[in-house]
Amino acid sequence: MRIEVINQSKYRHSLRPGDDVPLILPGAVYGVFDGATDARGTRVDGIGAGRLAAETVARAMARLAAEPDVRSWPAERIVEHLSQALADRTAPLGLPIPPSTTMAVVLDCGSDWRFLLLGDSGIRLNGSEVLLREKLIDTVSTLGRVAVFRDLASRIADPDDVEAAAREAILLGFDRAVETGMMPRARIEEIITDVIRETGLEKHADLVEGFLRGGIQVQFHFGNADGNPLCFDTLNGNRPLLGETIDVTCPKAGLSSIEIFTDGYVAMPAHASVAAWEAAFEAAESQDFHKLDRYAGVKGSTSREVFDDRTVIVMGDLQ
Questions:
Q1: Rounded to two decimals, what is the model's pTM?
Q2: What is the Cα–Cα distance from 159 to 177, expressed in whole angstroms?
Q3: What is the CATH number of the domain that holds 252?
Q4: Which pLDDT tens digit goes with each residue over 200-232?
Q5: Same structural domain for residues 13 and 88?
Q6: 127 and 45 share a domain?
Q7: Residue 14, SS3?
Q8: Spatial contact of 264 and 278, defined as CB atoms under 8 Å apart
Q9: What CA–CA distance (Å, rounded) separates 33 from 35?
Q10: pLDDT, tens only, 14-43
């Protein structure tokens, strides 16, 4: 087997770590964990709350993989164990936003591979079949942020300043953007109406409006919740309710490559190698630097940061 890995922070000119954590224990478990960046910038013992969640769950997964019978556990039991480990670490801290993380894990089960995913990190098999679940709430945020960015770009010359203001608006909420004078109230109301129409969420218009007005800093209320389309399952110390965990087992004989990646990669390459993933990343940066069009997202890149941390583990030559 050939194993390649890259774990790259979003900070261009700093040694500051990002919120992605890879895990590689040959013969046992391989995975990536993408901690959710805290919109309020919360840090614990010098690291971001998102990275704290990713590191905690990665360590718990490593310990769990050493258990001889864990490969036969139901996915719900594994997720419950990891959630409890995160709760034990973070609940005593009393943080305003519960630290959370995604998970994309490959378990070595002898003659089979088992794939477990929760959140929007993904796994690609044989360079073609993709296991991935995306969140509607991210689509709402993306549409809102792109509209704000385009509006601000017509009035602010420096693209870095535009991105900083657009991020503040979507992270801390449209109401704050109005209060600080960043955006006119009438324009914000137009954007909210447009987002509701474009997502087809007219029956949940009040919900979408409330989320955009509060910003991503209130998104945690939808994590491991139920009852509306913006809810999503995650690892945040509470029990997931929607059954969104992906659990797939495949014979090793049918697989030549496995790639495990976080959402810092918005484009997938044709070939299974770190070099190919990095080339796809650079091409996406060149084509849509501000993440407004083909690769529209919740954040864009700047001269100081790329839009997100990125991690990929490539397991090749499996046959």
A1: 0.95
A2: 18
A3: 3.60.40.10
A4: 999 999 999 999 999 999 999 999 999 999 999
A5: yes
A6: yes
A7: coil
A8: no
A9: 6
A10: 788 999 999 999 999 999 999 998 888 888
